[in-house]
Amino acid sequence: MGGGHKESNSRVRVVGTLREFLKALKKAFIEYFVKSPTVHMVLLNVLVYIWAAHKSGNFIFISDRLLEAYGQVNEAVYEGEIWRLFTAMFLHVHIFHIALNMVFLLIYGLHTEEELGYVFYVTLYVLSGLAGNLLSLSLGPKVCTVGASGCVFGILGSASVLAGFEEESLIVMVVYAVLQALTSSGPGINALAHLGGLALGLVYTIILQMQKS
Q: How do residues 33-84 score in pLDDT, each as one tens digit?
């Protein structure tokens, strides 16, 4: 009788622990997959990359044909294809390009979204990419650029403001810029967008902070 009672209690504890684990798992899923704008942006970029890789027939490198069809071809933008300023944000030249961007987006995006909230975060993301791409129009008509690095630099700029321009955030920004330079030797990666995205992220978050105070 005593042994059966202990066994019953053990089962109850196991079931209780399992229920608590499932509740925690559900909460984490809701927080990071349903509510997190950072996760949503990462998933969107990854889905676009998978689609582009499938169309290119190459998972490592995206074809020039596809990049020119949907990327920021400045000459086409000059002629009125404004939509390219937005589609270019979600295209990447190769697997290392998207991997670098998404890793830094996850690291600093998850913290930044807690401070800004969903709407202000997504607005920051899109405006940073747009600012970088608009600045890239100065590169001339024959240039084709793609990448989310302008968006990511906007998030890094915002994170720096929120952290009070701590040394760590500035060092990370430099490291990210160096890694971008090392992986951006091929054509099509939007290097000038970094500056535009960073400037937008800094100004945007400073304005938000001033409004709060």
A: 778 999 999 999 999 999 999 999 999 999 999 999 999 999 999 999 999 9
Domain 37-212 CATH assignment equals 1.20.1540.10 = yes
Cα–Cα distance for residue pair 125/147, rounded to 1 Å: 13
Angle at alpha carbon of residue 159, lines to 157 and 163, rounded to 5°:
120
Question: Could you tell me if 51 and 96 are in contact, meaning their C-beta atoms sit under 8 angstroms apart?
Answer: no
Question: Is 158 annotated as catalytic?
Answer: no
How many Å apart are CA 104 and CA 42, to the nearest integer?
Answer: 10
CA distance 149 to 90: 10
The structure's pTM equals 0.82
Q: Given the structure tokens 């000038």, which residue do they identify? A: 192
Q: Across the chain, what does the average pLDDT equal? A: 84
What pairs with residue 144 in β-bridges? Answer: 73
63 assigned to active site? no
Q: Which of 36, 128, 136, 149 is catalytic?
A: 149
Q: For residue 4, is pLDDT > 70?
A: no
Contacts of 143 (CB under 8 A, 6+ apart): 72, 73, 74, 136
* Spatial distance between the Cα atoms of 39 and 102, rounded to a whole number of angstroms: 10
